[in-house]
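agent> step 3/5: call structure_predict on target 'PhoPQ-regulated protein' (Salmonella enterica subsp. enterica serovar Heidelberg).
agent> reason: downstream docking stage needs a structural representation; sequence fetched in step 2, passing through unchanged.
tool.input:
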Amino acid sequence: MFKRYLWKLCWLAFALVKRGESMKKTYLVVIVLFFISTKVYTLLHNNIFFCRNSPECDLSHVLPDYREQISGTPLKYTLINTAPLAQVVVRHYELLSQHWSPDDMVTPAQWRHNVDIYIPETAKEHHALVVVNNGINYDKGVQITGKPGDFPQETLASISRDTNTIVISVSDIPNQYLTFQDDKKPLKEDESVSRSWALFMEAPEQRKLMPLNIPMVTALSQAMRLAKKELTQWNINSFIITGISKRGWTTWLSAIADPDVEAIVPFAIDLLDIDASLEHIYQSYGGNWPITFYPYYQQGIDEKIKSPTFTQLRQIIDPLRYLNTIYQPRLAIPKYIINASGDDFFVPDNTRFYYSKLPGVKSLRIV
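tool.output (status=ok):
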């Protein structure tokens, strides 16, 4: 729309000159029109596209806005050490990605991550692979050091060496264990995710940042900032993201929130169009939920799937809900989707609800 205004502006200026109007008058008209056009663009950008100023608007801006806000803060990280491996050098960093505790309801609030960068002897420039990794870094509120289980060091070093690609592992996504206000039990993985959803749905307008998916994506984005800063020798400026399960979900949402993501490879997160997918899972299990859904059942999520507050939650956490928003082009980046035929959570045909709707280059593999 703004381009159309500029085109009309240029056309009018040309017409005025052709008619012999004074240059002063032409300039005046052009300036007035440009001012009006800019104001229109600003209104569209702030109020229609992003809808930041209206509580009635959808929440599709919440995740990108939070990531952008955090990306504007000073980056806090430390190089721990550098270690040689076979044909690969690995740099170990500690990253403090953010302080996340909506309404002061979550502890620990400071998110910490191990970021390991694998650099092969002959590394390709410009692009890097980012692996969203798991891990446990808090035990009873005390920081501990643990190793991720999704992608161990041997696997990451092998990928880097065999492909001549810089590989970045971001561990402890999410940070865990976390304790939510008034809860006595520290939570991890699906327990933390489901609890954050339940708290969001209690007061969605006041707790827009409560879904755990939001800081998970933002932590990944901060790790990419670190990589760009530390890997200037290789001009790394864009990233391919991969992760499994909840880290696969983070992979999807990073495509929406971070423009430095150029392609994604999500593993085992067959839950786009989440309401239709959940209903299909429930019916496929004969009116029951798989055992892995228990944390969500325990938080009463199953009873809220058709509620207005769950609709608001979907606008943040469901990648498919970003269709028909300004973020739709981000869904068009290349996608290599890998799902499991024997997943203990998802049924093997959930893709029928979303795959055909995804824009851009895409490929699906079920193993």
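agent> step 4/5: record observation. The two ends are 44 Å apart (CA to CA).
agent> proceeding.
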